[in-house]
Amino acid sequence: MQLKEAGYQENKNTIENIHLSINKGELVGLIGPNGAGKSTIIKSILGLINYVDGEVTIHENKRYAYIPEHPTYYEELTLWEHIQLAKTVNQIESDDYFSRAEELLELFRLTKARHQLPSSFSKGMQQKLMIIIAILIQPMLYIVDEPFIGLDPKAIKDFLKILEEERKRGAAILMCTHVLDTAEKTCDRFYLINNGQIIAQGTLQQLQDVSVAEGSLIDCFYTLMEESDDE
């Protein structure tokens, strides 16, 4: 992904000079404070920004899955009908689609809610629906925005385990999160965004080399943020 500039209004850029790449089987963390431009980057990848000067390339089968921070669903469809719709829309022919769906419902403890409307769900249950659909379509790229909000500890552990399995399958994952202790343990590399620009990138070791030697991701984050704000 190479973006010279992008924004919500013409000639009023929210992000500038963003060069971002994710390799097969890699989990990359997109981190930064509120208003830094992370959502604009995600929307640019998804083609939801009107004013973009740049290029986004998705290799392989071009199938990607987006897990939004705020779950979106059809109010008139049940959980199971959402699963059926995802199969049809994505033209999935695999014979084990529904058996995998059953397994995921059981894993995330949603089996009894399969014929209920998501509008009656808690935020965590709605988030699980988003996760299940994303996993079922087996994309080569996941774009995940604040996935842990509303999830219980077991669901978080199960979701992280699934992401690890998807990485082994070859899927690339871009994860935007404020939960830096979890990101530190799971991500291969990081892009730190502030004021619409990338101010640092690399592995935790590379971030430590330019900020806090042997520091945690949180330590590096705050140090690099302060340096960026002072410039």
In words, what does this structure look like?
The protein is 39% helix and 20% strand. With 231 residues, it is α/β, with parallel strands linked by helices. The model has no long low-confidence stretch (mean pLDDT 91). The strands form two sheets. A six-stranded mixed beta sheet has the order 5-6-7-3-8-9, with helices on both faces. Strands 2-1-4 form a three-stranded antiparallel beta sheet, covered by helices on one side.
Core attributes:
231 residues; 6-stranded mixed β-sheet; 3-stranded antiparallel β-sheet; globular
Strand order, largest beta sheet: 5-6-7-3-8-9
CATH class label of the largest domain = Alpha Beta
Q: Give the low-confidence spans.
A: none
Give the number of helices.
Answer: 8
The CATH architecture of the largest domain would be: 3-Layer(aba) Sandwich
Radius of gyration: 18 Å
Would you tell me the structural class of the helices and strands?
A: alpha/beta
Give a short summary of the structure.
The protein has 8 helices and 9 strands. It has 231 residues and is of the alpha/beta class. The protein folds into 2 domains: 2-63 and 139-230, Rossmann fold (3-Layer(aba) Sandwich), CATH 3.40.50; 75-138, no CATH class.
